[in-house]
Amino acid sequence: MHLRGFRIHPGWFSAEDQRALVADLRQVLTKAPLFQPITPRGHKMSVRMSAAGKYGWITDRKGYRYSKVHPQGMHWPAIPDRVMDAWYALANCPREPECCLINWYSEDARMGLHQDRDEADFDCPVLSISLGDDALFRMGNVERGGKTESVWLRSGDVVVMGGDARLRFHGVDRIRFGSSTLLSKGGRINLTLRVVT
Ligand SMILES: O=C(O)CCC(=O)C(=O)O
Ligand SMILES: [Fe+2]
């Protein structure tokens, strides 16, 4: 995909680092369990979510927003150091991420085209880490509609979406269930690091 501000770092996390990262995330998820997000219109999203950091991104009947607390009321756990390392190495941004959103895709999960625009500072990129099964990622335009381009993201890949790519519509059409052995039950985890305020 040739788009200014969109960079894929294939296999940035080694197989060993990916396993360590999954162990880190298991710790996070015991403190902040995955939940089923509901859109403001009342539809269940097919991914399950949680977060680490000062803020998590949540959605329910009241709307999309960043929140300092999990839907069950607790604060979010700290962002694992291994995740922060990717930000320091690749984000090229003087600010620290305030949210590590965790999306868990089971066999039939997908994510419709959307913009990430609930953050205050669009000069900072969104950094995305893929773990587990391959995902067909689609990138569109700053407005809905028009031509899109797709790319398969694999376990260990890190994507930086900044500059011209920061406010483009994007989504995940599907995962290739069982394509990776990283997660014992299959599926995919995506982490996105965001500067929120
Ligand atoms: O799962 C992905 O690769 C993308 C996730 C995403 O776009 C988001 O969480 O806003
Ligand atoms: Fe997004």
List the helices and strands and how they pair.
Layout: E1 6-9, H1 15-31, E2 48-53, E3 56-60, E4 63-67, H2 81-90, E5 99-105, E6 111-114, E7 126-132, E8 134-139, E9 149-153, E10 158-161, E11 170-176, E12 188-194
Antiparallel strand pairs: 1-10, 2-5, 3-4, 5-12, 6-11, 7-10, 7-12, 8-9, 8-11
Bound molecules: 2-oxoglutaric acid and fe (ii) ion.
Description of the structure:
This protein has 197 residues and is of the alpha+beta class. The protein has one domain: Alpha-ketoglutarate-dependent dioxygenase AlkB-like (Jelly Rolls, Sandwich). It is 14% helix and 34% strand. The protein is built from two helices and twelve strands. The protein has a six-stranded antiparallel β-sheet, with helices on one face. A hairpin with a 2-residue loop joins strand 3 and strand 4. The longest helix has 17 residues. The two termini are 29 Å apart. The site of 2-oxoglutaric acid has 11 residues, from strand 5, strand 8, strand 11 and strand 12.
Helix count from the secondary structure assignment: 2
CATH architectural group = Sandwich
Please tell me what the overall shape is: globular
Task: Determine the strand fraction and express it as a percent band.
Answer: 25-35%
Range of helix content: 10-25%
Provide the CATH superfamily. Answer: Alpha-ketoglutarate-dependent dioxygenase AlkB-like
Record field, number of beta strands? 12
Radius of gyration: 15 Å
What is the name of the CATH class? Mainly Beta
End-to-end separation in angstroms reads: 29 Å
CATH topology group: Jelly Rolls
Walk across the major sheet and give the strand order.
1-10-7-12-5-2
Structural class: alpha+beta
Order of helices and strands: EHEEEHEEEEEEEE
Major sheet description = 6 strands, antiparallel
- When the domains are counted, the total is 1
Compute the average pLDDT: 96
Q: What small-molecule ligands were found?
A: 2-oxoglutaric acid, fe (ii) ion
Low-confidence stretches: none
